Amino acid sequence: MKRTSRTLLVIVAILLIVAVPVISGYNKMIGLEQRVETVEANIDTELQRRNDLIPNLVNTVKGYATQESEVIGSVVEARAKLGGAQTVEERANADAQLSSALSRLLVVVERYPELKSNQNFRDLSVALEGTENRIKIARQDYNNVVSEYNTTIRRFPNSIVAGVFGFDQKQYYKAAEGAKEVPKVDFTK
């Protein structure tokens, strides 16, 4: 009887030694996965805030710069693409395109001093600038959490737990191809 008790205790101890790291690793991965989703939602919130500001900015510029329809059209088109983006990669590409279009729009504004002095335009510009800063910080937060998550699921023994429970690596928020290039603005038209 004593031998059976000892054997049972050894088996229970071995199971605990195995189970505790598995449970701990699983719970850590769940927590990190939730943080990734939360920070991704924060990016979406800031992108939506920017999307909401853009029509007012575009309409204000339209009133002063009707001949700049190509630049205005590129902002509207880029905004629509961002609204339809589904994945992190699609959002990053559409976001880069919208940022580029907004940069061109703001360069065009330089040609209209009366627009720059318009209070509504100034308020919208300040709000947009603040939103751009929040988007930048949200992207950084997202990539930091994704890095921590991806590292956790790749480390041993978490990699085994991740494989068993289907934890897959998350994609980083990357700038689109060509985002490092300076936008070309042509005032000769």
UniProtKB/TrEMBL annotation:
<keyword id="KW-0472">Membrane</keyword>
<keyword id="KW-1133">Transmembrane helix</keyword>
<dbReference type="InterPro" id="IPR023353">
    <property type="entry name" value="LemA-like_dom_sf"/>
</dbReference>
<protein>
    <submittedName>
        <fullName>LemA family protein</fullName>
    </submittedName>
</protein>
<dbReference type="GO" id="GO:0016020">
    <property type="term" value="C:membrane"/>
</dbReference>
<comment type="similarity">
    <text>Belongs to the LemA family.</text>
</comment>
<dbReference type="Pfam" id="PF04011">
    <property type="entry name" value="LemA"/>
</dbReference>
<dbReference type="InterPro" id="IPR007156">
    <property type="entry name" value="MamQ_LemA"/>
</dbReference>
<keyword id="KW-0812">Transmembrane</keyword>
